[in-house]
Amino acid sequence: QVQLVESGGGLVQPGGSLRLSCAASGIIFSMYDMGWYRQAPGKQRALVAFITSDGGTNYADSVKGRFTISRDNAKNMVYLQMNSLKPEDTAVYYCRAVPSLAGSGADYGGQGTQVTVSS
Fold first, then answer.
1. Which of 22, 38, 56, 117 would bridge 52 by S-S if both were Cys, CB 3.0 to 4.6 A apart?
2. Are 81 and 70 in contact (CB under 8 A)?
3. Rounded CA gap, 15 and 31, in Å?
């Protein structure tokens, strides 16, 4: 059974930092690209950051220079370090696993963790 479990969300003041974690099980983690997505109230889910199986990264323009995605293949973990948080970063954050080889299997997603940036 595949599980992706996000953690690390919470309430933080503007300018603060949070580190999100996503624990994956039931997949060969090293064969998956991993992404963090977010969905704010009334908005569509959008890509925040993406890391390939070999460590290549990509970020949404709105988070470049503030967020850092990383992975630990030995622990089946992906992280999102979020610095200089802004109120507009408030959303539910989801991690997603996408097979590195297109068409080789299904995508998987977690249940999400709430991030609220407010004073």
1. 56
2. yes
3. 35
Q: Helix/strand/coil (H, E, C) string of 34-51? A: EEEEEECCCCCCEEEEEE
| Placement of tokens 């983690």 in the chain | 29
Give residue 13's region: left, alpha or beta (phi > 0; psi -120 to 50).
beta
Examine the pLDDT at 103 and tell me if it is beyond 80. no
Question: What pLDDT is attached to residue 102?
Answer: 81
CA distances to 11, 42, 46, 54, 56 from 71, rounded to whole Å, are 24, 30, 20, 10, 11
Which DSSP symbol is given to 98? E
